[in-house]
Amino acid sequence: MKKVIAISCLAALMLTGCTKPNNNNDTESTTAAATTEAETTTEAVTTEEKTTTEAVTVLKEPDTEPLTEPFTESEETIKQRREMFYADVRPMLKLYFDKLLEGNGGHAYMEYTFYDVDKCTVPEVIIKEGNSEAEFTIHVFREDGFDGMYQIGEFGGGHTALCYDADTDKLVLAWAQMGAMNISSLDMVDYKLKEVTSDEKKLAPDEEIDDILAEENIKKLAYISVYKPDEESAGYSIIHHADGTEERKEELYFEFFE
Question: Spans of biased composition, class Low complexity (predicted)?
Fold first, then answer.
């Protein structure tokens, strides 16, 4: 899947007029076309007594067509790209979880969600995995355009919620533990997802984390957790909706959701 970059250029030249008072205190006005391009040439004017040179202004009609037509993708094209993306993501998520099971002796825990980090209409895949809060790690993957994924960011995930800033649309990591809190804003830097701001806070005894996030206009992302406690168990999944409600699936669930 190839990404298309649209470049739009706009040029505008303006000629303004002026007024000049004469010696009789009358005002003689000259007119000018504010939106007309002008060319100035020199013409020789010959009289019986002498030859002088004066400026002659040649007016041209402004261009009626833009220099470059802006490129936009149709809604149908964007929809097709997203559908292809999610078709590629399903087997990738299952394969990732299978690798975790293999490395952990038949048990594994994983969370996954999606967010359009680079604003190209196709989201990135965000996976949080580990066996405890001390081990949780967050990985962010981007589609490579050839039915594959590559990692663009990795962050500590213990006691951390995946969020986004409703004002800037940036991905946000909200960490909190024992009365301390940190809100990190992430953005693309040199083709990698990196922390660009970090805001440390102290929670008062009567303050809740969700209250602080609401004040900052930061929203939690919906996500799916997938868990298999041992080799004999079939495992299960939970859809964690953005409004705080949950939906349990008696299976290892790797389907797209919104």
Answer: 27-45
